[in-house]
Amino acid sequence: MEVPGRGPRAEAPWKQLSAEELENQYCPSRWVIRRGAEETLKMYSHLGDKATKKARATRKSLLHVPYGDGDGEKLDIYFPGEVAAEALPFCLFLHGGYWQSGSKDMSAFMVDPLTARGVAVVVVAYGIAPKGTLDQMVDQVTRSVVFMQKKYPCNEGLYLCGHSAGAHLAAMMLLANWTKHGVTPNLKGFFLVSGIYDLEPIVHTTQNAPLLLTPEDARRNSPQLLLEAALTRPSGPACHVLVTVGQHDSPEFHRQSREFFQTLRRGEWDASFEEIRDVDHFEIIWSLTQQDSVLTQVGHSLSPGECGSHRRGGRWGAEGIFGFQGAGVLMVGTENPLASATSPPERAPRDLQSAPGHTGGSCLGLGVDGAGHRSGTRKVFACE
Ligand SMILES: Nc1ccccc1C(=O)C[C@H](N)C(=O)O
């Protein structure tokens, strides 16, 4: 597939935005469609709490397992069966919250649907700002992966899933230097949900107040820039990378995901891109709590992705990213189970041009580009 792109770094589009519009673009709660910003953030905590309580009450688990000596370097493991088995696929989940909010104790979103399918879920804590720095968070996540590989050497694959800031941290693992840690983790898939891959714009928003990122810190921690700069594909894992973004994420979040995917493809990574219909930045992760969610069905459709079997193009395999026996025909439901009776207006911001600047806590009334289809199913291909 020919992947269109900007080629060597052109002037970044976000640099043309006013300070106010940049702030808007990087404030996901201002783009929500069915509830107010505040209500959304409350519901996000509530649903995360609820999913975690349920997971802890219903699943065999190992809680607060230290993966390092540092404060808060802990993870929770939820098993699909009665025993803490080892020969399982493990999905490591990294929560969102702009590297400054959220915790593992309210982020067991994926436990229900994945354990039901025989996948162990590991919710990883990392030291958020202002106490922790981005460099430390990346190092912690690296060490959590190393820890899991060493604790479960017979695992049937480690899969990294991250939401928002967590997708950034997961993406940084594509560039990790595992030799330094004396182990090659059995990484089989990356599942990046509404992430940020170029941190430079963040430096110019109020989100940076607790992060205190300098432009240099931002560049050093931007997988987008690091992969663009790499002349050849880093010798990272040869498994599948799925980049997803919510239809109602902001145009900048769409641009970030699309460009990261394009950069991966240019670097010959086995990557695919999926815009999830009818969900905003928060609903996209709530949908992971649903057994029949769009995303778990996307999970179904990914290639078995044995590391080393570097697939280029073609249709998805019949087995899921988590080793499920999936259907051969890969249909992704585009119905959002969380959509309430109040349907949002047809709106699919795809680029900055189609999104007139807006302020405040709502994006209602934004430009309509007519591209939103809200129902039905469609086939998903590894490359389109
Ligand atoms: N709590 C979150 C959880 C996940 C992802 C983002 C957030 C945010 O709070 C982002 C930002 N503070 C916002 O108001 O949109």
TrEMBL record:
Catalysed reaction per UniProt? N-formyl-L-kynurenine + H2O = L-kynurenine + formate + H(+)
The record's listing under PANTHER family reads: AB HYDROLASE SUPERFAMILY PROTEIN C4A8.06C, KYNURENINE FORMAMIDASE
Q: Does the keyword Cytoplasm apply?
A: yes
Stretches for region Disordered: 336-359
Q: What is this protein called?
A: Kynurenine formamidase
Q: Which HAMAP family match?
A: KFase (MF_03014)
Highest taxon of source = Eukaryota
Q: Name one GO cellular component term.
A: cytosol
Q: Where is this motif: HGGXW?
A: 95-99
Q: Which UniProt keywords apply?
A: Cytoplasm, Hydrolase, Nucleus, Tryptophan catabolism
Which family does the similarity line name?
Belongs to the kynurenine formamidase family.
The annotated active site, in chain numbering, is S164 (nucleophile), D249, H281
Q: What function does the entry list?
A: Catalyzes the hydrolysis of N-formyl-L-kynurenine to L-kynurenine, the second step in the kynurenine pathway of tryptophan degradation. Kynurenine may be further oxidized to nicotinic acid, NAD(H) and NADP(H). Required for elimination of toxic metabolites.
UniProt-listed Pfam families: Abhydrolase_3
Subcellular localization is given as:
Cytoplasm, Cytosol; Nucleus
Domain (Alpha/beta hydrolase fold-3): residue spans on this chain: 92-231
What species is this protein from?
Gulo gulo
Q: How does it assemble?
A: Homodimer.
Named in its record, the pathway it takes part in is: Amino-acid degradation; L-tryptophan degradation via kynurenine pathway; L-kynurenine from L-tryptophan: step 2/2
Q: Which GO terms describe its molecular function?
A: arylformamidase activity
Q: Which GO terms describe its biological process?
A: 'de novo' NAD+ biosynthetic process from L-tryptophan; L-tryptophan catabolic process to kynurenine
Enzyme class (EC, first level): hydrolase
Q: What is its EC number?
A: 3.5.1.9
Quoted from the entry, the domain comment is: The main chain amide nitrogen atoms of the second glycine and its adjacent residue in the HGGXW motif define the oxyanion hole, and stabilize the oxyanion that forms during the nucleophilic attack by the catalytic serine during substrate cleavage.
